[in-house]
Automatic annotation (TrEMBL):
This is (apollo) hypothetical protein. InterPro entries: DUF4817. It comes from the Eukaryota. Residues 13-54 form the DUF4817 domain. It comes from Parnassius apollo.
Length: 142
């Protein structure tokens, strides 16, 4: 389990060793890359920037190399639906601005409940008195 591959090319053990070596090298990514090459000559050698990324992953409380390991998505769908009920013409961005819930999450919740994005499109109304000028314009264009 400790040596299971999560991301192509590196195991969780290798990520942990990269992190330890990064610390030993005084958080210098180039020095860590050199030290890693010396210590593990038979392994694939990561680019020096990988050491900083691995360190940042651990500092953010997530395992490096895991896909979909972003922020936990715990959303109270009722808040989104309540916003939609209060104003059915509201936009996804407006709901995001009022609630702080990411736009993509708001859109997903609305989609899950069968709502579609609503866009107000204002158009001019054609009146009966507009008929003659429209006909005259069309004749001139022909």
């Amino acid at each position: 389990m400790a040596n299971r591959r999560i991301f192509p090319g590196y195991t969780q053990r290798e990520y942990a060793e990269m992190h330890l070596i990064y610390g030993e090298a005084g958080q210098s990514s180039r020095a860590a890359a050199t030290l890693y090459r010396e210590r593990f000559p038979d392994r694939r050698h990561p680019h020096h920037e990988m050491f900083t990324r691995v360190h940042n992953s651990y500092m953010e409380g997530r395992l490096p190399g895991q896909r979909g390991g972003g922020r936990p998505q715990v959303v109270d769908e009722d808040i989104v639906l309540q916003e939609r009920e209060q104003d059915p013409t509201t936009s996804v961005r407006a709901i995001q601005g009022r609630t702080g819930i990411p736009k993509s999450t708001v859109h997903s919740v609305l989609k899950r409940y069968g709502y579609h994005p609503f866009h107000v499109r204002r158009v001019q109304t054609l009146l009966t008195r507009d008929y003659l000028p429209r006909v005259q314009f069309c004749r001139r264009m022909l």
